[in-house]
Amino acid sequence: MSLVPTFATPPGFLGLPLRAGGAGIAIAGIPLDLGTTNRAGTRDGPAAIRRASRMLVDGAHPVTQVDPRALELADVGDFALALGDLQGSLALIERQATAHEHLVALGGEHGITLPLLRALARRVGGPLALVHFDAHCDTWPESFGQRFSHGQPFFHAIEEGLVDPKRMVQIGIRSPVEPEIMAWTLGKGVTVLSAQAVHEAGPASVAAGIVDVVGEAPAYLSFDIDALDPAFAPGTGTPEIGGLASWQAQGILRRLGGLDFRGMDVVEVAPAYDHAEITALAAATIAWEYLCRTA
Asked: How far is CA 188 from CA 136, 192, 213, 219, 235, in A?
């Protein structure tokens, strides 16, 4: 790490060269932030996550002994978006996602998850199980009069039958929420684990509960970086105190290796509010943990 960086180092995640695809797992940036409701700036998230991922190229994972750079990976660059058009951008994301059998998406706001789930559920042929780390439940039917934003992806995913709510687990929830929104979420069968519950139970117990809910169903992982406490991830648009520590998130993810994950995203990194790249590094490490476990 002390060597002088060379000009035009490959710009992809983990220093991978950018290429069109053709690998078992594609990594794509989705720099969308048209649907943010607080601080914008997640359009710069993919670039920041890729930069921070250079800290993860020294060798194999300390637990799994997997070096993800030896896997069938391709960084396919950033997805195209429709300038100023949220609905058009969601349609473009869905169309581009269909080209990849297994996608790791670097966001971008959490609204990108909806078109990714649409594409994957169609590929799988039915609803998916969902493991969702977040400070917010993201099951609001609207935000400020709008039906689509980063607060609605899982409302639509449930309503459209993209996910099976009885096989859906939300981890780290702690933001203010209207009682009727949480009642709707729980009424659909979603398992909601508050951040306080995670602190009290510990990673091993939380992971065991996730495995029990998801079972053997094809699953998707969506990780909003604001699931972490702002002490560990200040660079996000809607921070909420009392969140997970980085080690807790790692401890949970490292115990989910038996689940049948078919794709994932890590979202809501807003570098303008970051400090010393700690949020971008946390997001890069979450994706790295996923790759090492998926292998």
From this structure: 17, 11, 14, 18, 32
pLDDT tens string 170-210: 999 999 999 999 999 999 999 999 999 999 999 999 999 99
Model-level pTM? 0.94
Phi and psi angles of residue 77, each rounded to the nearest 5 degrees, phi first: 80, -160
What torsion, rounded to 10 degrees, do the Cα atoms 107, 108, 113, 119 define?
A: -80
Contact assessment for residue 110 and residue 267, using Cβ atoms and an 8 Å cutoff? yes
CB atoms within 10 A of CB 173: 26
Return d(Cα 61, Cα 74) in angstroms, integer: 19
Residues contacting residue 180 through CB under 8 Å, at least 6 positions apart: none
How far, CA to CA in Å, does 69 sit from each of 18, 54, 152? 13, 12, 34
pLDDT tens readout for residues 6-39: 545 577 899 888 888 778 999 999 999 998 888 9
